[in-house]
Automatic annotation (TrEMBL):
Keyword line: Hydrolase, Serine esterase, Signal
Domain 4-O-methyl-glucuronoyl methylesterase-like: 99-338
Stretch forming the signal peptide: 1-18
Any one GO molecular-function label of the UniProt entry: carboxylic ester hydrolase activity
Pfam families: GCE_fung
Protein name, UniProt field: Alpha/beta fold hydrolase
């Protein structure tokens, strides 16, 4: 698996796939209009956005990109399998919770790792990471402490910090992705608009939210869903679908995450569907080398997070994820925040490297370095949360 990843990264760096990295070669394109309904009604009010355009856009993404999100299941059971009230040298209360969801006589188990600050007087805001890296990054025993999930720092800042491993919901493999959430919804596998791995990861984030709703330590109205790269595609889809998430972070999510597909800069739809045929609905393959035919683009997904705060990031060396196209996408989404009378403070041109813009509702930074999720990134997410939810402690 590691070998494959190294080969893939090597291919990207020597541009074996022939992707475009030259801004001058980006052909002119027209983005679908965020604020024009299918029946050509101009959307100018929150009411029309929420009643007409938002549901339309959600359906477009279900139909063409991520697949239908199943909402029904027979049963959900939460069981605390492990606990340590003196974790992190007494600073945190660790809970290891199994979330077992049953439908169609099949059960999927999502294993949640959750640290809550010790001695809290009231329920606290929480961050939830969809972990798409090694499980050691979110270790409950803290044998490994990595910037990918700097739980100690979050606890210090007064937040609960949680994670689940994405493979619990859907293994990230084209032959085995169905051995998770999709066992509960087998009909999705043969449907053109059936969800696949990214949909399953987002679905699992919503089940964690179901758990948070009944954990008295957590303020479920203040939960931020966080994802990096493929996990960042899932965090966006989770927040778009499930408005119980109060805030969303999409870190270096690139193609079919936060960046604009119409630009065909860096990774393209054809490339992503070829490398990862198990991520998106089969219908999405119709748009391989046919971005013009897409009735949507990713700015419309970002807009579905409105009016909730959204943090979008890039890394300076990560051209594969198209930083410029990501920023343009976020700027387009401002139109919907404006309907809510929320003014974005993002500058017209992309900010310089390591110059975060952290004011709600729309935050952005491009960090120096490579495609990654680091402690630097988290430090900015904490600032946005402090700003939005009110400083902790
Ligand atoms: C790459 C993929 C990107 C991104 C990344 C990751 O191989 O092309 O879209 O998802 O993986 O998840 O790290």
């Amino acid at each position: 698996m590691k070998k494959l990843l190294i080969i893939f990264l090597l291919c990207i760096s020597v541009n074996v796939f022939g992707q475009n990295y030259d801004e001058a070669k980006v052909a002119a394109y027209t983005l679908p209009d965020l604020l024009m309904s299918v029946n050509k009604k101009k959307i100018t009010t929150v009411k029309d956005w929420e009643n007409i355009r938002r549901p339309e856009i959600l359906s477009l993404f279900e139909e063409n990109v991520y697949g239908k999100m199943p909402r029904q299941f027979d049963n959900i059971v939460f069981e605390v399998k492990g606990e340590n009230k003196n974790a992190m040298n007494g600073k945190a209360h660790l809970k290891e919770v199994e979330i077992a969801v049953t439908s169609n006589k099949k059960t999927v188990r999502i294993n949640l790792i959750l640290f809550v600050p010790s001695k809290i007087k009231e329920p606290v805001a929480a961050f939830l990471l969809i972990n798409n890296r090694g499980k050691e990054n979110t270790s409950p025993n803290r044998e490994v402490i990595s910037g990918f999930w700097p739980a100690e720092r979050l606890i210090e800042a007064g937040y609960a910090i949680a994670a689940f491993h994405y493979s619990d919901a859907a293994p990230d493999n084209e032959d085995t992705f169905q051995n998770g959430v999709l066992r509960l919804y087998p009909e999705q596998l043969s449907a053109g608009d059936g969800m696949k791995a990214v949909g399953a990861w987002a679905w699992a984030a919503s089940r964690v939210m179901d758990y948070f709703k009944q954990d008295k330590d957590i303020d479920a109205s203040k939960v931020t869903v966080v994802g990096h790269s493929r996990g960042g595609k899932a965090s966006l889809w989770a927040a778009a679908q499930d408005t119980r998430f109060a805030m969303c972070v999409t870190n270096c999510s690139g193609n079919t995450g936060a960046s604009l597909s119409h630009r065909r800069f860096g990774e393209t739809i054809e490339r992503i569907n070829t490398s990862f045929p198990h991520w998106f609905a089969d219908n999405y393959k119709k748009y391989n080398s046919n971005e013009k035919g897409l009735p949507l683009d990713q700015h419309m997904l970002l807009a579905l997070v409105a009016p909730r705060p959204l943090y979008v990031t890039n890394a300076s060396q990560d051209l594969w994820a198209d930083p410029k196209g990501t920023y343009l996408s976020e700027k387009e989404a401002e139109k919907v925040y404006r309907l809510y009378k929320l003014t974005s403070s993002l500058p017209v041109s992309p900010p310089a490297v390591n110059m975060p813009f952290v004011k709600p509702p729309l935050a952005y930074h491009i960090r120096e370095g490579k495609h990654d999720l680091t402690e630097y990134d988290w430090a900015q997410f904490i600032k946005l949360a402090d700003n939005h939810f009110g400083k902790k402690k």
